[in-house]
Amino acid sequence: MVTCVNDAMFPGTGQAVVTLLRRLGVDVEFPEAQTCCAQPMVNTGYLDEAVPVVRTFVDAFTGYDAIVTPSGSCAGSARHQHGIVARRSGDPGLERAVADTAPKVHELSEFLVDVLGLTDVGAYFPHQVTYHPTCHSLRMLGVGDRPRRLLEAVRGLRLVDLPAATECCGFGGTFAVKNADTSVAMGADKARHVRETGAEVLVAGDNSCLMHIGGVLSRQRSGVRVMHLAEILAATEGTP
Amino acid sequence: MSAREEILARVRAALANVDDSVAPEEVPVPAGRPAGDDLVDRFLERVADYRAVVKTCTARGLAKAVRDALPEGARVVVPARLGIDVPGAVVDDGLTAADLDACDAVVTAARIGIAETGTIVLDHGDDQGRRAISLVPDLHVCVVRRDQVVADVPDAVALLDPARPLTWISGPSATSDIELDRVEGVHGPRTLHVLLVR
Amino acid sequence: MNTPRRSPLRSERRGDPEKTSGTFVGMPAFPEAASEALLDPQLRHNLSHATGTIRAKRSNVVAELPEWEDLRLAGAAVKDATLRSLDTHLLRLEEQLTANGATVHWARDAAEACAIVAEVARSHGADEVVKVKSMATQEIGLNEALEAEGIAAWETDLAELIVQLGDDLPSHILVPAIHRNRAEIREIFRTRMAAAGRPAPDDLTDDPAALAGAARAHLREKFLRAKVAVSGANFAVAETGTLVVVESEGNGRMCLTLPEVLVSVVGIEKVLPTWASLDPMLRLLPRSSTGERMNPYTSTWSGVTPGDGPREVHVVLLDNGRTNALADQVGRQALRCIRCSACLNVCPVYERTGGHAYGSVYPGPIGAILNPLLKGVGNDPQTDSLPYASSLCGACFEVCPVRIDIPEVLVHLRSQVVDAHRGDRRPSGESLAMKGAAYTFSDARRLERAEKASSLAGRVLERFGRTRLPGGRAAAGRLPGPGAAWTGARDLPAPPRESFRAWWRRTSGGTSGGRSGGTP
Hints:
The complex is a heterotrimer.
Chain A: H1 4-8, H2 11-23, H3 39-44, H4 47-61, E1 67-69, H5 72-89, H6 92-101, E2 105-107, H7 108-115, E3 128-131, H8 135-141, H9 146-152, E4 158-160, H10 175-178, H11 180-197, E5 201-204, H12 207-219, E6 225-228, H13 229-234
Parallel strand pairs in A: 1-2, 3-4, 3-5, 5-6
Helix pairs in contact in A: 4-5, 4-6, 5-6, 5-8, 11-12
Chain B: H1 3-14, H2 39-49, E1 53-57, H3 62-69, E2 76-78, E3 90-91, H4 97-101, E4 105-109, E5 112-114, E6 119-122, E7 139-145, E8 149-150, H5 153-159, E9 166-169, E10 174-175, E11 183-184, E12 191-197
Parallel strand pairs in B: 1-12, 2-3, 2-4, 4-7, 5-8, 7-12
Antiparallel strand pairs in B: 5-6, 6-9, 10-11
Chain C: H1 8-13, H2 30-38, H3 41-63, H4 68-84, H5 86-99, E1 103-107, H6 110-123, E2 128-131, H7 135-139, H8 142-148, E3 152-155, H9 158-165, H10 182-196, H11 208-225, E4 228-231, E5 235-237, E6 242-247, H12 251-257, E7 261-267, E8 271-272, H13 278-289, E9 297-301, E10 312-318, H14 322-327, H15 342-346, H16 348-353, H17 364-375, H18 381-385, H19 395-399, H20 406-420, H21 429-441, H22 444-464, E11 475-476, H23 484-487, E12 492-493, H24 500-506
Parallel strand pairs in C: 1-10, 2-3, 2-4, 4-7, 5-8, 7-10
Antiparallel strand pairs in C: 5-6, 6-9, 11-12
Protein name (chain B): Lactate utilization protein C
Organism (chain B): Nocardioides guangzhouensis
Domain LUD (chain B): 99-197
């Protein structure tokens, strides 16, 4: 599952996942019928609108052994919210289909560490990096220190601690526009902490959060780049 | 319909969608901290953490320790059956709130002490007096016997009699209402002096 | 800010006991109120200092208990089991309280509860009552209702006193004056205390100990003379007919002990089944609330005790929307709440907006679910805005001592808000956008067409736009119209030249043709 945000806005992240997983010997497919996990509708309260989107999701992904996604938030949505949408639909068939797909969804770091049993994925990234654990990966999925362990095994990478790392960046889906001022106030504090680290790159496991923090960092002319975890793990000596 | 009947009817209607065939999951309440050899020391350390004054004495030295805890010339009130000689103390026989406000100090016994939380519980028996006397004076000298100290909150709840009024005291009166900065001493006794009889 | 933040809202409520919904009257919806609060740097500073302090205290004392997570499970289970047969427990509570010499009243709503308290005070000829800090009496607007009856209600908790003297509104469940710093409090005491009784000393400093001392002197005369006291209760034990008040300052003990008459207003969800079930709660509440192993004072009393304390004890069992919340299968978990306020202290939204933005005596994450559950959605925009006052980060659930899954309830309530407006004559822009998104996301071919259109926009930006993200990607700066909410303070990356799916197809799944441009 590449996610709608990555498909439309950050194709490089999807490409990095493909590159990384193939390098690790995984047979990767991109079911072209996929669209979105329906989280934007569910989290804004539009459950009826989410029903056809969840249906599209299960139609696209039924039959695979593992559904891997570079987003803690979308993985959380599929695992924890698709059941709510399916119950709302009143369609027992959709409920059964969701019960089958939901547990097969893995956030990328979970898949690498738990399913493949790896922390060193053979990456090389000679830069100073700080890591922001996104809320849904941290608290909804409980990915714990898996992303950090993966980053610590990257050759050349210098990982610096982010102050107040576990505090939300303020993205929050439609919260970012419905409560834009509060969202930006949270983002500004997160960006300040990022700048305090002196890191060249801010890494996280969710491009939506990075789009928000990166947007604030860019407006502040901070010079700090934001990158998805997958892109760093995909990088090797040959591909700068 | 009376308010009582209407509220009860609303409650029953609200619970109509609860599936009674599924019993609620039995979740055990975890045990508290075991007593251990350091029970009394832990109690003293934790009472002191609240910035209470903590002293120990022997049974024989108790009366002197109480006198030492009271400032020179203090007007002292004691409950009817304190069982400790406090020279010059007024025995509470239904003093008014204003009378109590004119007292500087009170000496009471306690029902139990809780080591884990540094708490003293009064059940306002005859050696502790009614609630007001240990509240209005500014200094509370509280005598706790070693064998009254229990390990943790579950032990206390099990021992205490809910039919009696209970006052759980953990340090002197305090507030953190100004910038969450803890200040000892607002309306209750500003000084809590705990005497543990070893 | 050195002058009290005088609130016109509070004045409007004066003398209008009918409007006692627990919402600050005339409050704008959360986003507008939040935006205004964000402009106050003093407020931001006061809040971040205070919440940071209490967060650290809580996490230290919670870390002391290896059984903490099991305690949370036990606390949630006790409350759930009680709520499941709430009618039985309420009847048992009534029976035991009555046997203990208390008089039990039932109140369907705020107005009924206020009338009961006023009648008790009047029957004793009292023109004043002293009050223990209580969320239930704030919720029902008791002070205003009593004032309308000519009865003065004196708040005796230090923070409540600061709020009352400052003609202000509470902004936190535990520390209602958390938005005030010591200099502001000194100013309130100096200018307002005299009108309410004993004035502040002339040489009052802003040292918290001195401020607390001024409150002690000011309130003592009230404690000593009051005939009637009003309290809430943290817990009400059905088995034994026992009420429990958990506090710090001793003002609670004063009110519960010295006056002849005590009236306690208790929400029906405060019931605990047995005396023993108090145990997990007394281990959970202080550590979660003030960040202490135990709060300074906990008082328990079972009706009237001859020769000790009040001679007349009344208990008002209050519904005021609680049965609405109980009927909601997802939302009823909010009735487990023991008002510790840990969720406020960890909430990144609350920390920045403060409590007033929530427009209720219940602010923060718990307020964002409790207010809509008590009042119902679809009736007023302020209440409907509350479930959206969260980034769904989940920090509240993580600290909740009774494991209320606040994010789950928020999302659930959002769907109720949306459903309540499905019949609106004019659909909102948001609902049209969501319907459009659902249409696009229901079919990958439609999504692909949308991506092609956005790629085109991206190429235009790349060619003509001047904003570049670090790394060189084109971006949109400030946009007009619907994009303004995002781009007011954040750059937005330009759409890539090629979507992932277009790349996948062009390169046969990345096996030919190499990487595309447009990566960030």
